Amino acid sequence: MAELSVCSPAKINLHLEVLGLRADGFHELAMVMQTIDLFDLLRLKPTADGAIALHCDHPDLPTDGSNLITRAAELLKARAGLPELGAEIALRKRIPIGAGLAGGSSNGAAALVGLNALWGLGFSPEALLGMAAELGSDMPYCLAGGTQLCFGRGESLEPLEPGAADTLAVLLLKHPEASVSTPWAYGRCRELRGAHYLTGEPAFAERRQALRHNPLLPALQRGAALPPLRNDLQAVVESEVASVREGLVLLRRLRTPLAVAMSGSGPSLFALFPDLDAAFAAQVELATDLEAGGFQSWACGLSPAGVMLVA
Ligand code: C5P
User: Fold this and answer.
1) Average pLDDT over the chain, rounded to whole?
2) Is residue 164 over pLDDT 70?
3) Residues facing residue 87 across a β-bridge
4) How far apart are CA 137 and CA 105, in angstroms?
5) DSSP H/E element including 233
6) How far is CA 250 from the centre of its chain?
7) Domain 4-160 has what CATH class?
8) Helix orientation angle between 125-135 and 68-80, rounded to the nearest 10 degrees
9) 138 is catalytic
10) pLDDT for residue 229 is more than 70
11) Quick check: is 24 catalytic?
12) Where are the domains of the chain?
């Protein structure tokens, strides 16, 4: 194949519950994840020199071997046993970095799907999901997208019917100078709450079952008023990051949101609305305060798809 592009969407967490610690040192989680219509674009060209050359239009993003795009490319080459495969990858970054929107994981997932097609490797969707799970806890979800229950480290997926989630929309806020490290947020959560973590598989299984029957899920299907959203990392991050506290005050002042919460380990925040018009109206309503607080904002729809090849 000569050249192709891959759409790499952001996600938000509609529920993030920290259950306890796992034997591998990661946290056992119960989450509802949702892709949104805010996406990066990867443009891929094959080369024959065995090198992965990554270029990005965002100056702050490392483009060396630590980037999940490069790591995904090297893993694919190793699994295919074809070290001579090379690619030039241009990344157009629109998802804010270090924001709790899984931009990096989504880019890695997009590289897996795109390079599998570009190099004609023929790995199955299941094989790509397995590689994604090796690279990062959120990466399998980013491959699949839509509305999903995510358990385990985050890699164990149970898709939900899209229902009304297709027409819902968000107003997303992030302060450009705030960024939260995911390992820091989980580490701090453990310091603060570790003594009260659940232990043992039966206790974890009970919480997973509770999430499958959470009133949030039918409310999402109907696009009706939602119960308050739960994100266990929000209290941890809110107490340490001033812009998270300030952004939450602004969003909670809005007249008609269905719900307000932080996404993932933050610091991005969102208010959920029945449709895109309502999200745009909220952006206009808050415009003066957002500018005064120095916030960036995006109004966008929820999306039923994960990473996607686009010609
Ligand atoms: O899997 P990923 O590399 O995205 O995780 C980043 C970090 O977030 C981990 O190194 C760990 O500190 C924390 N984490 C965790 N439990 C999870 C997922 C992530 O403690 N389920």
Assistant:
1) 96
2) no
3) 46, 52
4) 8
5) helix 232-238
6) 23
7) alpha beta
8) 130
9) yes
10) yes
11) no
12) 4-160, 164-303
- The answer to whether the CB of 50 falls within 8 A of the CB of 76 is no
Separation of alpha carbons 229 and 184, rounded Å = 22
Q: Residue 47 forms beta bridges with which residues?
A: 86
CATH fold of the domain at 164-303:
Alpha-Beta Plaits (3.30.70)
Ligand 1 centroid to residue 182 C-alpha, Å: 7
Taking CA atoms, 141 is separated from 150, 236, 273, 284, in Å, by 8, 24, 23, 32
pTM: 0.96
* Ligand 1 atom with the shortest distance to the CA of 153: 21
Q: How far is CA 88 from the centre of its chain?
A: 25
Q: Could you give the CA distance from residue 37 to residue 9 in angstroms, rounded to a whole number? A: 6
Nearest CA to ligand 1 atom 8: 183
Distances, alpha carbon 32 to alpha carbons 73, 135, 253, in Å: 28, 20, 25
State the DSSP H helix or E strand holding residue 14, giving kind and residue range, or none if neither: strand 4-21
Counting ligand 1 atoms within 8 A of each CB, the residue from 17, 26, 27 with the most, and so the one to mutate, is 26
Radius of gyration (C-alpha) of the chain in whole angstroms:
19
